[in-house]
Amino acid sequence: MASSLPGAKALAGRAGSEADIAVVNGIDYLSNTQKAVQILGGMGKFVHPGSRVGLLINSAFELQGAYVHPDISLAVLKMCFEAGASEVVLLQAVDEAYWTRSSHHEDMKEMFGKVSQVASNVFPAEFNEEDWKLLPAINGAKALKEVEVIRELEQVDVLINVFIAKHHAGTFYTGALKNSMGFCTRKTNVFYHLGSGERNDPDFLAQSIADINLLRQPDLIIGDATSFILTNGPAGPGDVKTLDKVFAGTNLVAMDAVGATYNDLAPGEVLTNVKAAEMGLGSYDPENIRLVEIA
């Protein structure tokens, strides 16, 4: 199948280390998530026996198209434990109701004995000494100051970012880069939106999002482009687009370049991509992205 990112180097039918991003099409989201990771070399490439895995899932919304489909998240959990993870830590708390939206929930209940979560990281998250750390600055950051961030971010061995490619009123697109705001308290997230002195200043917000991703970049990124809102994000309700795509990669900017096109945006129209690229976090130029897409 041809690349879905115009200009990207299509490597249809080829897998392994050559692929930067793997896209799998179809309605079996659990299986397709597994296939996407297999194309990149398998979960064992990222998670080694005994690892503690930190998982950040964009799950905290109620309307379909605003949250990651739970089959995708369950597939990631399953692959982590099959690769030998000793524990998976949900870096942002996930409500039980989220998991029960999946028809696979009952079959995989035994996994949850090895799953913990940062219970205090639920909106509106407030600082406490046990779960959170105050950073006076982030090395190289241009906008963020005095960041309150979860301690587990530096304690887990592996970091996996699981996001949904959807609309956002402030940034036009919510993706892997913006999902990293989930590492922060409400106080810090308010600073993203108000810190410049202008409410939702798009340039400052995008720069702050790029800044938080300097702290730690994920080892693996999973994107949900199954059904997602194109308007009234991040919570909806909005116009829903269904592509039945799951995609996986290791670079934040490249993944958001692909996700932007699914939202009918050019990658360079998304300021978070531009700012993150300027910070050296990756390229949104299709010529620099090697993509494998299968049915």
- Rg from Cα: 18 Å
Q: Give me the secondary-structure category.
A: alpha/beta
Mean pLDDT: 94
Classify the helix fraction into a percent range.
Answer: 25-40%
Q: How does this structure look, described?
A:
The protein has 295 residues and is of the alpha/beta class. It has a single domain, classed as LarA, N-terminal domain (Rossmann fold, 3-Layer(aba) Sandwich), CATH 3.40.50. It is built from nine helices and eleven strands. The strands form two sheets. The protein has a nine-stranded mixed beta sheet with strand order 1-11-2-10-9-8-3-4-5, with helices on both faces. Strand 4 (87-90), helix 3 (96-100) and strand 5 form a beta-alpha-beta unit. The chain is globular and about 50 Å long.
